[in-house]
Amino acid sequence: MAFALNLPKLSYSGVGAVDDAIATLSQQSVKRALVVTDKNLVELGILDHLFELLDQTSIDYVLFDQVTPNPTATLVRQGLSVYVESDCDCFIAVGGGSPVDCAKAIRVVAANSGDIVDYDGVGKVKNAGDFFIAINTTAGTAAEMTSNSVITDESRQVKMVIIDAKQIPDIAVNDPLLMVNLPAHVTAATGMDALTHAVEAYVTPGAHTLTKPTALEAIKLIAQWLPIAVEDGKNIEAREQLANAQFLAGMAFNSAGLGLVHAMAHQPGATHNLPHGVCNAILLPQVSAFNAVQCPERFCDIAKVMGGDVNGLTPAQGAELAITLIQNLSQRVGIPKGFSTFGITEKDCHDWIEKVQADPCLGGNPRQPTNEEIESLYLACL
């Protein structure tokens, strides 16, 4: 089978990207957009310019601002009702991964049938749905340009990972002006999320000549610019470089795949509603050490682009350096050291094992773990 590189039809990046995206939308045959976002962004005025642009182009819109972190199946059903009852014919998602994933899921059910839980897994979406613009306000998830959506099914206490290229938005937007007010702790968490995307995409067996360079460049940019953006959120260059980095990471993992970090991170996110980027950051060093046994050369490459001196080191030593550099970066940007900070117990870790084994991200890991190894990794991250 040939390698598939899935991307949005169009991506706008840089200052003024929102204006260009709405100008393109105005050329489509659309009348009413469902704007999917969260109340906090509305209250902060992040969407004010978007609303002005929609008014100027005579595109009507309905606001669905109920999205919470780790969006749920119930939230998707509520958004679908608003979309149908308001007779909308396009989507505009504004925010980080949560609003974008929620909009993706609403669009899936609107264009097909049944309930969002029917689409848990890979390749189950038949119809792409109405025109969709995803406007990113963080630099982490790359949800604006990927084929994945992650929705919590409250009834099972599990994060569904819906994977299908038909979920990719028509237009991806990254405007650094929308990111300058992002709090430092959110900048840190989303940046480490992007780093995890890039690392997992680089070491997975699914990595390809078309994805490995973008993964490495993303790692390099994040190592350089994430501390700067955390320390000075109004640094436009840092914001833009991080937006570019997370997009590059998305280009890599969207086609190469992810791995054990994400399979494990989805579980505390589902049961304890923890920030996804924080979960990834806590797990990344331990899982990297586990994977480095299988592919030390890849981790040696990672150490090099993060600024490490690998001259004279064996691949195993280079891998150890990469893990140290990842830990140092996580510590510098203020990521909590372990899950016990959030009240997670050994019993929680044990209860997650089967769900990790069932997570679709696990298949992309370079080394397949046993149940005992998964539990051991969780316990090392407490």
From TrEMBL:
Extract the SUPFAM superfamilies matched here: Dehydroquinate synthase-like
Alcohol dehydrogenase iron-type/glycerol dehydrogenase GldA domain: which residues?
11-176
Q: Which cofactor does it need?
A: Fe cation
Q: Is tRNA processing included in the keywords of this UniProt record?
A: no
**Which residues are the signal sequence here?**
none
UniProt-recorded Gene Ontology molecular function terms? alcohol dehydrogenase (NAD+) activity; lactaldehyde reductase activity; metal ion binding
UniProt feature coiled coil, ranges: none
Fe-containing alcohol dehydrogenase-like C-terminal domain span = 187-380
Tell me which EC number(s) this protein carries. Answer: 1.1.1.77
Q: Which UniProt keywords apply?
A: NAD, Oxidoreductase
Q: Which Pfam families match?
A: ADH_Fe_C, Fe-ADH
Per the record, the similarity remark reads: Belongs to the iron-containing alcohol dehydrogenase family.
User: What name does UniProt use for this protein?
Assistant: Lactaldehyde reductase
Q: Which organism is it from?
A: Vibrio ponticus
Q: What is the lineage of its organism?
A: Bacteria, Pseudomonadati, Pseudomonadota, Gammaproteobacteria, Vibrionales
Point out the gene that encodes the protein.
fucO
